[in-house]
Design a protein that fits this description.
mainly alpha, two-stranded antiparallel ribbon, 5 helices, rod-shaped
């Protein structure tokens, strides 16, 4: 009866894999929760989970490229602020200058630091997260809904 024995071993291994996946996922999500909430900016409409999925989908998991985009954006905003100019958020028709622009630069800086925290929490975890979704464990819904 080697067939039954092989099936039993396969079932036991599958159960062990699911249980260890749950333990690992709880640890991953605990790490993500350790990252501070994103600052409130009405047009961002994002959270930790959305940023993580965005980096995986559009940047192929390359966090540094995504973070560099935000660093460059912050630098452009600083230049505009220092020259006394107006920053325009074209998609929303929002114009920022003076103290409002300075406050927005501060929020962009916080977003960069929080994204770096997410990078530390999630780097190398996407394969596991995809598998978790396939077997019905779900993924972190994020902790910074705006």
């Amino acid at each position: 009866m080697p067939g039954k024995k092989v099936k039993l071993i396969a079932v036991v291994l599958a159960i062990a894999l699911v249980l260890s996946s749950v333990a690992i996922s709880n640890n991953i999500y605990a790490q993500a929760r350790a990252c501070p909430d994103l600052p409130v900016v009405p047009w961002w409409k994002t959270n930790h989970n959305k940023i993580t999925k965005h980096v995986e989908h559009y940047y192929n998991g390359k966090w540094d490229l995504y973070i560099d985009k935000w660093v460059q954006y912050r630098e452009r905003l600083i230049q505009i602020h220092e020259s006394g100019g107006i920053a325009i958020i074209k998609t929303k028709g929002v114009k920022l200058k003076g103290e409002f622009l300075k406050e927005h630069i501060s929020k962009v800086d916080k977003r960069i630091r929080i994204t770096q925290c997410l990078q530390e929490s999630h780097s190398g975890q996407f394969v596991f997260n995809d598998y978790s979704e396939k077997i019905g464990l779900g993924t972190n819904s994020g902790t910074a809904d705006l």
